[in-house]
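--- STAGE predict ---
source: upstream dedup step, 1 unique chain passed
mode: sequence only
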Amino acid sequence: MARAFWLHYHGVQLFNGWFSKGEPDLADAAKVILTVAVWTLKPRGMLVANKRNWRCEQAATLVFCAAVLAAAAAHGQTYTTVVNNGPSSNRVDMVFVGDGYQASEIDGTYAGHVSATLNRYFNTGLNPYPRYANFFNAHRVNVISNQSGADDPVNGIFVDTALDATYNTGGTDRCLYFNTTKANTAVNTALSGSGIDVDIRLGSVNSSKYGGCGGSWAVWSAQNGSALDIAVHEVGHSFGNLADEYWYSGTTWTGGEPGEVNSTSNPALGKWDRWLGYVDPDSSIGAIGYFEGARYNEFGLYRPSNNSMMRNLGRPFDAISRERFIQKIYAEVDPLDSWLSTTGTFLHDDVLWVDTVDPAVIGVEWFLNGSSLGLLGESLDLGTLGLSASQSYTVEAVAYDLILDHSNTGDSLDWFRLANTSSLRHSLTWTVGAGSSVPEPGTGFLTSVVLVSLLAKRRRREPGQG
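--- STAGE serialize ---
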């Protein structure tokens, strides 16, 4: 398995060749370093050392840069951003890592598996994901294995892969998982310095035998015919913290109340009573209730619906799971990406604005002195309001997910019934002053009493807040 490699210095090609094996040995490293060593007496300048997407610039010496490059080549990890909808600080960043893919399979097979998975999430009506597509970024970390596939101990199959993917994890044959320490190291190495904050970790294994498991990583066999739904189901565990809703015959729960939102030991607790009797008009889930059998136990635990994605593949998510995903999305994403600063006093003909993550999802209602002006979009031209120059005003913008207008209606966007909706909203208030004049260049706005935004500074919410 050869690997392309080249070095340039001041526009001069120093080396252009191939490592002879998947991982460079000492001879390979020596060849590179010796090739550039003669240039160390030259004036320092720009060195570009490219191994897939890797660059080394302004190195103190060429030897140092070559050594850094050799280390990067030895790890073989790079990343590719495949979906970029906005800043990582205000998006759910999905990061894929693959195991059991040889170098020749990275740009074809592996990239295809990632693309197909994203398509399943965002383009096939798997609610709530399509509605929130612009709330997500996706990145593919490219990890090279010496052999394709995964270990299958039950059938005596063992292969050499970078992350040690194996079936029969924990003694369950279909539980396909990998070494999460190695996976996390690969991701951290590839994303170092990128500013990407990993929110969903997805593991694609180049194997055809049915299998997958969910933990800190959602892992699945990408060559299997059910691969896409396995990926969706496992993310239900790793991102949504949802319980499985299937059971094994004859088992009885003897523990306390489960922590997952979609499992309860006692219907009288009313864990999802807000959805009781709800029938999703766009799916075949049926009425929400309390159905015995969940979390691997036939008796003593209850699930919200008869048959959802958390029980069987090929099914929709029910209302409780869907609501949970929305809650988790807004734990990472503020409805607004940016806005006009609320500091200072504004003129009667200024234009106030906010920038929503997705105007098709986030509505902006504007208020003048507490009275609604309606859903007017992302900007408000104060000059159109006929404001008196001798009076002061407060103008408020409330950005919120439009599904909140449908709560408890039973219609196609009745997706959120939790009492706390604060994470789905963002309010800002500006002061419009009497007798204001345009400030001189460089002086900024005239200061005045400012009604501070409910969220004065952009910030990331920690999971579970709100």
